[in-house]
Design a protein that fits this description.
The structure holds 2 protein chains of 2 kinds. Chain A is of the alpha/beta class. Helix content of chain A is 31%, strand content 21%. In chain B, helix 7 packs antiparallel against helix 9. The chains are: A alpha/beta, B mainly alpha.
């Protein structure tokens, strides 16, 4: 990739909070992230045990990516934290409390945007918000660079724009835990890279706790502080990512780490050998 | 779409009815079609003018329209509410839906003798028949629409802290609306059909009465005019339903720009 996608302003996005859009709201702007902990969490669907025993501690404001093969239960972890499923065993805590669906501290972004097609873009972003917080929704739409598209129907937007609206909707309630369930999985490669930069920038601004489920290892390396590899219903690897942000994908360290994580996801016995091969290929 | 093209699109559907009338008039004038079988369009027009002149026609149309509207409102409201409740509340759906499905298979016109016994041959029985006819298509489509709201959207709304009232008003109802409006259009068709039958059996006013009267006196021109009037009123109801769809479903690509 020969261009620097992390150059600020290269996607036509607007400044986050310009003076004229900043309202005199008494609300704390960035309350930061919450602490999340999972202890011995198990979940089965019918006879199939998806999660056997997951232990995971996530610090406030940390960005964690969960990767793994299809069906390893990575989405299930998010659905448990969103309160959409109940665990069969174990303990999940968000700020010391069990998850409940509809908790305003927690917002989930799905793989499909799930916009209500009969509401205009701005009304989609205000969904579930009390009238007093509608200004926050307008700001969130500005943050994702779609302030001028509020009056449109979702159907006229592109896939990437719809996901940006979904991101704005998730941000509008000023959540402190952002659950990202493969939100970029259905987008084309270029849009995906744009969206990753947008997510990173927004996360840096708000410092919420973020958990990203993805099967794109490069995406995990680009965004996360830590990468969790799930395998056979357990945390198989917990890999810290110490690269400085923003992370150019062309760097040698990026490629090496990507190859390492990929090898671990695939469960190769000789991870290093694969890593070497990957390095040669990408060099 | 340019203005000229829009105008063409509006005119094109009328070409066929217009040609039918021209050919019909030509055949009648040439004596190919007997006056006793089918009067010429000109004769029908003349009959219409005579009927309109003595004022009874407007009165009869008003009477029919009132019966149709009352029956439609009563039946449509009941069908809509039952559909909503049975669709949204699982227990209610399990309890009542299969009974509704059983009842809908009864041709409502087969109830006429029973309805006459219950309500006599007055206004009530005609409105009752229209209401029963409209109730089922509206019920079925409302129920179906509510049951088929995308579960992914319901899950999202629940997760985004949408209250039960808002979930109903902003997710379930608009999600079911395309299907509900299909039910309304079906209902409008059945409304006219039922009214024609009800007015030809026992009535002393209304369009159905006018045509039955015309049959007694072998006034084929009046008879044909009555039938055309039904076609026209049916078309009018359909246009109204379509414009409603265009307005309420502007978000839906299938209806965008239909109004």
């Amino acid at each position: 990739m020969g261009f620097d996608i992390f150059e600020p302003g290269s996607f036509g996005t607007r400044p986050l909070f310009t003076s004229e859009t900043t309202p005199p709201v008494a609300m704390p702007r960035d309350p930061g992230g919450v602490e999340v902990s999972l202890g011995g969490v198990a979940k089965a669907f019918g006879q199939r045990g998806v999660l056997r025993s997951v232990d995971l501690e996530i610090a406030p404001g940390e960005f964690v990516a969960i990767v793994g093969r299809s069906g390893c239960g990575k989405s299930t972890v998010l659905r448990l934290l969103a309160g959409l499923e109940r665990p069969d065993a174990g303990l999940l805590q968000i700020e010391g409390k069990p998850p409940v669906s509809g908790n305003p501290l927690v917002r989930m972004m799905f793989q499909d945007a799930r916009l209500l097609p009969w509401r205009r873009v701005a009304d989609n972003v205000t969904l579930g918000l009390p009238q007093a917080q509608h200004q926050l929704a307008r700001e969130a739409l500005g943050e994702v660079g779609l302030a001028d598209r509020g009056g449109e129907w979702p159907r006229v937007l592109s896939g990437g724009q719809r996901q940006r609206v979904a991101l704005a909707r998730a941000l509008a309630a000023r959540p402190r835990l952002l659950l990202l369930d493969e939100p970029l999985g259905a987008l084309d490669a270029l849009t995906r890279i744009e969206m990753q930069a947008l997510i990173e920038r927004i996360w840096l601004d708000h410092r919420v706790t973020a958990i990203l489920v993805t099967h794109d290892v490069a995406e995990a390396v680009a965004l996360a502080d830590r990468i969790i590899v799930l395998d056979a219903g357990r945390v198989a690897h917990d890999i810290p990512v110490d690269l400085p942000r923003p992370r150019p994908r062309t760097s040698r360290e990026f490629a090496a780490l990507e190859a390492e994580v990929l090898a671990r996801v695939l469960g190769e016995p000789h991870g290093e050998a694969v890593a070497e091969r990957e390095l040669v290929r990408t060099a | 779409m340019t203005a000229a093209f829009a105008l063409k699109a509006r005119l094109i559907p009328w070409i066929v009815p217009f040609l039918v009338i021209v050919v019909w008039q030509l055949l009648a004038s040439a004596g190919v079609i007997s006056d006793r079988v089918l009067p010429a369009p000109a004769a029908v027009g003349q009959a219409a003018a005579e009927l309109a002149a003595n004022g009874r026609l407007i009165e009869d149309i008003a009477v029919s329209a009132r019966r149709a509207a009352l029956g439609f409102i009563i039946g449509g409201t009941i069908g809509f509410l039952l559909g909503l409740v049975n669709g949204a509340i699982p227990l209610s759906g399990t309890l009542f839906d299969s009974s509704m499905q059983m009842m809908r298979t009864i041709p409502h016109l087969a109830l006429i003798p029973l309805v006459i016994l219950w309500f006599g041959i007055g206004e009530t029985s005609r409105i009752f028949l229209v209401a029963i006819g409209v109730l089922f298509p509206v019920y079925l489509n409302t129920y179906h629409g509510v049951r088929n709201v995308d579960p992914a959207l319901l899950e999202m709304a629940g997760n985004y802290g949408v209250s039960r009232k808002d979930l109903f008003l902003h997710v379930i109802l608009p999600g079911a609306l395309p299907s509900i409006l299909v039910g309304v259009r079906y209902g409008l068709g059945i409304m006219w059909l039922t009214l024609i039958v009800a007015e030809t059996i026992a009535a002393n006013s209304g369009i159905g009465y006018v045509t039955m009267n015309a049959r007694e006196f072998l006034q084929t021109d009046v008879l044909v005019f009555g039938i055309l009037l039904y076609a026209l009123l049916g078309k009018l109801a359909d246009v109204a339903a379509r414009s409603l769809e265009g307005r309420l479903l502007a978000w839906n690509p299938a209806y965008a720009g239909a109004a």
